[in-house]
Every structure is written in structure tokens, then in C-alpha cells.
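Go through the following before class.
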Amino acid sequence: MYRLRSAGAAVALLLGLALVPGTATAAPVLLSQGKPATASSTEGAGTPASAAVDGDAGTRWASAWSDPQWLRVDLGATSTLSRVELDWEGAYATSFQLQVSGDGNAWTTVHTTANGTGGRQGFDVTGSGRYVRVHGTQRANGYGYSLWEFRVYGTQGTGPQPGGGVRVTGSQGNWQLTVDGQPWTVKGLTWGPPAADAARYMPELRSMGVNTLRTWGTDASTRPLLDAAAANGLRVMNGFWLQPGGGPGSGGCVNYLTDTAYKTDMLATIRQWVTTYKDHPGVLMWNVGNESILGLQNCYSGTELENQRVAYARYVNEAALAIKAIDTNHPVTNTDAWTGAWAYLKAHTPALDLYSVNSYGNVCKVRDDWVAGGYTKPYLLTEAGPAGEWEVPNDVNGVPSEPTDVQKRDGYTQAWNCITGHRGVSFGGTLFHYGTEYDFGAVWFNLTPAGKKRLSFYAVQRAFGGATPANTPPVISAMNLPTSVPAGARLDVDVAASDPNGDPITWSAAFNSKYIDNSGGLAAIPVQVNGNRLTVTAPDRLGVWKVYVTAEDGRGNIGIETRSVRVVAPRPTGVNVAQGRPTTASSYQQVGDGAPFPPGNATDGNAVTRWATDWSDPQWLRVDLGAVTTFQHVQLVWEGAFGRAYEIQVSDDGNTWRTVHGTTTGNGGVDSIDVTASGRYVRLHATQRGTGWGYSLHEFGVYRR
């Protein structure tokens, strides 16, 4: 602390930012109301920082119950200050400072109170700054700090100072992105958690070296993300989703030539949220659309596809111009999943400040594509990471071969090196993905699945120059299992792993049915661990499953590996006396994909074909063995549409039936039924479906042993 020797020295040091009671001469203007506000903490969702500058005396900001705490308002431009007023709730500060800043980082104190009394307090001040904050250092009671209103008066600046805002500067091949006049390489991640939880994750992101987050949509729920980002020195690429977003296989279809209502509505939405957030210190830039030029191939073809792509590019230009009419301080870009889309932007979207692309396995070819295309604008990578499901070879079971944890780690490092290697053109990128989900896609791409850090997390942290980790995840170096396994049988998975820090490893396992029914969920399963061998029980349902094994170190780190296994029907002992015999049914599906599905498919000995019924109860399937035959086992190999309640019946004449087995708790998969019975005819009589579909059997086997 400096002890000032004279009032003159104080004035000189503070450059006119000292407290001068009673000297305000101009009628004060309220500058702070409705402006972006951030805080060191909030007590809960109902007491956000914004409540202290909303002009509503019935709402309030409240902090955590600890010292120190602060509340900051961004006036949007450098302004001359004359007065600050504080309306305290019962939880007030006995000791606090009023501070100003031009950049939100370096602060100058313009007033100090050491014996605050709460209630309404007002202070005349002289000074200038874009940011004003109250910095509380001692609470009056056991609660936190709480303000009904925080009002800042003065003369509004005319706009950002020279070099302020976010700018694309430079010339062909020598561009630079600047934030408030300082170079800004985008070291970013795409954002997954709820925006309302953003403050919880920002310290971790900051420690990683992250300075930018990317969203795909912007609306009323975005503010907490912007607030938390700004409070931690991060910025956000605010997205606007346009149909058919998401590239191949996703998004709805819209006609950009004729659908005036859609285009008008989306422009209104874009204008609304740009107006709302344009002065927020958490905004980096606006991103209009995601993968739509490529995605339009899902809706159109031929000449019409070309016309729609041109119309879309022109519409993006219209949106960019609308944004620039409102906000001149943040660039505008557009994202696609195909560098070929840039040709449409080059020809029809001149208002963009830069291009963006999502690229995974081909990320290191983006530079060559930019050069070959003769482009005259810089670019960003808005999604990048290891090779995706759509660009890897299939494994022995015919499904995409997911990269290992080590390969993913190296994939992020390689992607970042290629992104930043295009100096003067690439501004960096937002890698995919910072999320806490734990499902098929999350295991493939998330840096923190289920909130646990994996090798990829630390690879990104190293690339961004973040903190040096004290502990890192277990490394799984091998995972081997059979290519197929009978339903419900023992499945051995051999693994090899080590922990760099010598931490003990805890193993777990899960199954996923993505390639059977498109489910993304992971179902945890019991696992027996015997050294390097994990033993689980195979699923009962036929098809190709993904098997996941996880190694945890008890310190918040995780290693994950996955392989596929084909679950097949067990082969019962004995002779299948039903195979190839005449088979009839109450109904069978005659239309639809793959139809018809006649009764004989259930007794042809082919595990791929199937019988399927109408979507009603009851239904039956009957096989004629040709003569009265004694058998000891029945096997039902269900497709997804299974029977919840059914009976196995026999008959000597096909008219009078005897029930030899029944259940009301069927769960599909493979039903292996030991039953000794005899008859010429054997029938499955189903009375309750397990799904909304009908009944469907791959095989109906009757075995004599």
C-alpha cells in the first residue's frame, strides 16, 4: 500500500479518479440500468447479478456467505462518472470500495467505506471508466452481501475507445483477431452444460487455458453463460441455428427460395438477441448457421439443391447485414462441415468477416482447401477433434471402429497443431466437446464424460498452455474380447492398463445398443475383476453391441475403451425338428421395409430372417412336425418386438391344444425353454406384446435331444 503524501499527489496518481464529494455539476444520467452485470458469486438462481441493475426494487443480487465479494457492471463504453448509489438489503457491507476500470482487469479505487451502515448510500465521484464495481471486504452479519439496486450516474461515452471491441484486422494472409486492441487466438471448446450452471465450470475452463466457448443457439437462457464467461475473462461465440442444421442426417428442411415466413421469423430472432447481448462483455462474435449448406443435401438434389445452397448463402448475408446494423463491435461468421461450402459464401455472402468450419479427420487438410479455393478471408475451426464415427473404417462386426483413448488424445493435439499452423489466416478454434454427458456420443468426444477428466482433457490443456496437472488418468493400452458371444453367456474382456501416478485402478463396464436400435444410452453391468481379465454376462438380445470398460483412479480421472461384440443365439444341443417344416401363423407383415416377413422365416434356420405379425393381440405361430414327436427344448429368438405374455402349446391334430409352458414376464432376447412334451404340432400363442409393434421372431426352434 502507498501512503499518499498530499492531496495533489493523490490527484496526480489517480488521474482525476479521486472521491470529490459534492462536486457534480451536470444533471446525472443513470448509466447502469439494464447493462450487463457480473459478480464473484451468487447465493442462488433467484438472486443473479443482473437483479441489481434491473431497476426493480423488488429484486436483488445476493452473494455467497464469505469475504471478499464483488458486483460489476459493464457500461458498454468509457463513461464519465459523477455518482454511485447502493440500496442494500439486510445483508450489507461494513467495509467496501467503489472501483473503476477501462478493461475489466486493472481497477482503481475511487471511494472507500470502512464503517458502512447499510440502507441507501450515495457517493459523488469523479472519474471515468467502462466498468464499475463495488468490492466488499467485510460483511455486516453472517450472510453474504445483498443489493436491491446498484446505480451508476454520469455521462455516457460515445462508444468504444480506439481499438476497442472485437475486430478482424490486417490484410490477405496476415490477419489477426483482436479484443479491445489485443491479439486474441481462439483457444476454445464447444459448450455442453446448461448455461445456468456456467459459473460452476468456469474455474476449470480458465485453468485449462480456455478463452472462448462456442454455442449453437442464443436466447434468454444464454445470459448466465455470458455473465460467467465475462467474470472469468472468457468470451462466447454466440450461435444462431438455421435449418437444416447439423449436417448430414439431421435438421428439418426449409425452402430458402420461397419460405418467407421462416426467414422473416429467424431474422427477427437474430435481431432480438443481438440487440439484447451486443454490449455484453462476454460476447466474442456471432455465428449464423451450422452445417446447413452441406445439410441441404438431405432435403434437395440436383439443380434444386444448388439453387437452395445459393439462396441459403444469400440469406446468411442478409442476416450478417442485419447484425452489423445493430452491432458494429463484434464480427459475424458462418459454420459449415465442408470447406466446399466456403465457395458459396465467397460468391454470395460478402458481409461475413470470416469463415468457419467443423472438421475432424480432415482438419489438417483445411489449410490446403483454403489455399486451393483462393479465399480472401480468415477462418476459425468451430468444431475439431479426433476422427468421427462417419470417417473411420468399420471393424470386424461391420460397425465404425472407435479410436482408442490414446488415439483420441493424439487426435486433439494434431488438430490443434494444424489449426494454429496456418498463421495469419486461422484464428484458432473451439474443439469438440466440453460436456458431462455419459453416453455413446459423449464417450466418443467429451473431454469430461460423467464429469471425469480423460486423456483428451489434459491434451487440450497442454495445447492451450493451461495449468500443469498434478494427476492424470489411467492409460488403457489394450482391450481384447471375442468378436461374437452367445446371448446371455459369459464374456471375458482382457485389458492392460497403468496409472502414471501409481493410483489404484477401479474397473467398471457397460453395454450400448446403438447399432441395434440407435440408442445412445450406456447400461452399466456387473463385472468380475480377476487381474487383467474382466468378466461380464453378454446381453440377451441379438445384434452388435458396444462393450465399454472404464478405469478410474479415484482422483476424478478416467480411462475409457470400447470394442464391439456380436451377440448370437446360443446353439442348443440336439436336433431342431422344426427347421424347414411347414409353418403357418395368425398374420404376417406384408408391407414395409424388408417385408414380407412370412411365418416360414421363423423356421428356416437363418438367424437374419424373421417372422413379424400385425400390431394386435393375440397372435400365433404354428409348425407342423409331420408326426407326433417328443422334444425336450424350445428356443425363441426374438427381434425387438417381443412377447410379454405367451404360451407354448402342442397338439396331435392341430385343433385341440395343450399348454406345456407359459409366462407373463417375457423380456425379449433369447428365451431358452426346457420342457419335455410331444405332439405333431407346436404353437407359440402370444397374448400380450412387449412393445407397440407386433410380434417378431428370428427363430422358433424345437429340439429333440
The CA atoms of residues 169 and 176 lie 5 Å apart. The radius of gyration is 33 Å.
